[in-house]
């Protein structure tokens, strides 16, 4: 660990490998600077997960300079001027000074290498990321006022916002992400450019957009990031289901503002995440995104009932379908899509508990249907209570406390999380003397239903139940 000289925040430090690499490049006759996020985070008191460097050396010269010093290297980003290195347990990336721009109809940047640090910094996305630390001298290079903007909690661009977003439209998503991650306010001219240029985001690949969205949702202030996306029109491109929630606004206030409700649920879900040792460690993208999307089925299901009431029947099912479609378009993996949509589909299941006594069978089904999403479902359901009626909120909270207590009680008795039929497929075939086929599946379903309704039974009783059922079905 290396402490930084006077002028940097007290306790700011860098890994020794940073200084070592600076000395390696200096010995080879090349400039090297730590750049971007790691420098910004020094002033925020954060530990940056990345160590990014920029240099006047070409990729070939980078490899020559670190030969014998780096433990490993890879050049998968060579076309963009980037060489990856490993030294001990540290991963480093060194990139040749460059400028890159998007062709108006292309998703891929056109890369041009530069020859000086200042030109490299002006092409970066925001002033707070356009700072560099020359190595090994620790000279801070901040030509665009990044430190000043950090103190002002303001997000500006080194060049004009129009130039910056034209070079890479994804930077508009990054602006929303930094609002969510760092709590920065977007400068008025930046927000104006985002609003005017939002449609240009369509040329960016879904994978790149998805990664920024995940970081935004997992930020310290996700509500601010989502709000900015909606205000600028970025959400119309990335998550059109969210601004559509505003269409359910009711001038007569017969029901709550679904858009603001969804943002509040997102915030409350964040508050219910656990530490690393708990069941839902923060930040949990699946829980947060399900909280944001849980009511997206309401615009399509809104109905005005006689007497002025408003209903949203089956919005949970419709919302799950819309969420799945959107996540598929953003190229999320199947497991994440399944987890989020499952929560959206189940988020209304609890309502009604407390108004009528649930049987043990109903509790078992709730747990079984939730599966490995039960802990997230607990938190999503609790987060969904945003009523200002304190008596109603207290009643719902008490009802869910009671449900969790009953789940724990049944789990202790029956290993609720591992509910299976009384007999498995092999046992069913042995008892009935049948080969694999549809009949085995029907028998399995019958035994599972019985297990749900009546709880566990002894194996002898299960065998007799199966035989009686098979006789009624004409299976032998």
What features would you describe in this structure?
The chain is built from 22 helices and 16 strands. It is α+β, with helices and mostly antiparallel strands and 476 residues long. It has a seven-stranded mixed beta sheet with strand order 5-6-7-4-3-10-11. Strands 1-2 form a two-stranded antiparallel sheet. It has a two-stranded antiparallel sheet with strand order 8-9. β5 (72-74) and β6 form a beta hairpin. It is elongated.
Brief write-up:
The protein has 476 residues and is an alpha+beta fold. Helices cover 50% and strands 12% of the residues.
List keywords for this structure.
about 10% strand, elongated, about 475 residues, 22 helices, alpha+beta, 7-stranded mixed β-sheet, two-stranded antiparallel sheet
Which outline best applies?
elongated
Radius of gyration (CA) equals 28 Å
Strand arrangement, largest sheet?
Answer: 5-6-7-4-3-10-11
Structural class: alpha+beta
Query: How many H/I helical runs?
Result: 22
Termini separation (Å)? 74 Å
Main β sheet profile: 7 strands, mixed
Contiguous runs where pLDDT drops below 50 for at least 5 residues = none
Q: How many E-type strands?
A: 16
**Averaging pLDDT over every residue, what do you get?**
90
Classify the beta-strand content into a percent band.
5-15%
Query: How much helicity do the residues have?
Result: 40-55%
